[in-house]
Amino acid sequence: AVVSTQSGHYGREITPAADSGPEVKFKLVYNKTNYEIVMGENRTVRELKDHIETLTKLPRAMQKLMFKGLVKDDTKTLKELKVVKNSKMMCVGTTMSDLVAVTTKPSSSEIVANTSSVTKKEPLSKQKIHQKVLDKGKPEDAMPGIIGVKQPLPSHPLNGMVNKTGGKVRLTFKLEEDSLWIGTKARTEKISMSSIRNVVSEKIEANPEYYILGIQLGPTELSIYWIYWIPAQYVDAVKDTILGKWQTFF
Would the pTM count as exceeding 0.90? Predict the structure, then answer.
């Protein structure tokens, strides 16, 4: 059988299918919604994606599954992926309706307004509040940055970065807890990813292989926690993981 329940909608059941090995119950997070999935361990990733499409209306072709890294082979079974009871998997992707909304052509007045705001906006790396941090130079232990490449999050924490005060920062993603740990020398803050309002980023003009990343922890931009020297290849993965879906950028 294939059974799923969604937070706030327990008991929703999908039509039973042919036996496919012992059932395993695990959690799936998509767009900040938790789903409880029950599937036979011999089911393939492709079958799981078909099931996710039924649950979320997210087309299989637009799904990306993250479980101990990006799941790349749709022919693998849950057993081969080592999905066990209470495992946590994340699905990211954008529905067609979201894409239509994002790509809808703006009006001429909106274009003028946006162009005006972009023209006036000074790059983050040129703003005094950030420039004084960047002027101290790249940390000696900064992870290598790569331009023009997008990579999934590594299996180890992201380190070698600094915060607004110049203190060392380490980011640890606890997908099984849906939490982000921001570690400094003084302490480690454990933050629920569902509570994070937004994530902004911008490349460092003098070092384009690195980015400035802002994690908005409260309702206003004053609550943004700034992190410097994020390797460029991990920026999208960081944003995707925290926000729970692929974002569209222009």
Answer: no
Sheet (strand 23-30) strand order? 3-6, 33-40, 23-30, 88-92, 64-66
Please, what is the end-to-end C-alpha distance for the chain in angstroms?
A: 42
Dihedral, 109, 113, 114, 115 alpha carbons, nearest 10: 100
Tens of pLDDT, residue by residue, the chain (250 residues): 555 655 544 333 333 345 688 999 999 988 878 899 999 999 999 999 999 999 888 888 888 898 887 888 999 999 999 999 999 998 887 665 655 554 455 555 555 555 544 445 788 988 999 999 999 999 999 999 999 999 988 889 999 999 999 999 999 998 777 789 999 998 999 988 878 889 999 999 999 999 999 999 888 888 999 999 999 999 999 998 888 654 333 3
Helix H, strand E, coil C: the string for the chain is CCEEEECCECCCECCCCCCCCCEEEEEEEECCEEEEEEEECCCEHHHHHHHHHHHHCCCHHHCEEECCCECCCCCCEHHHHCCCCCCEEEEECCCHHHHHHHHCCCCHHHHHHHHHHHHHCCCHHHCHHHHHHHCCCCCCCCCCCCCCCCCCCCCCCEEEEEECCCCEEEEEEEHHHCEEEEECCCCEEEEEHHHCCEEEEEEECCEEEEEEEEEECCCCHHHEEEEEEEEHHHHHHHHHHHHCCCCCCC
| Residue 83 to residue 91: CA distance in whole angstroms | 14
Q: Listing from the earlier edge strand, what are the strands of the sheet with 207-216?
A: 188-192, 179-183, 168-174, 158-163, 224-231, 207-216, 198-204
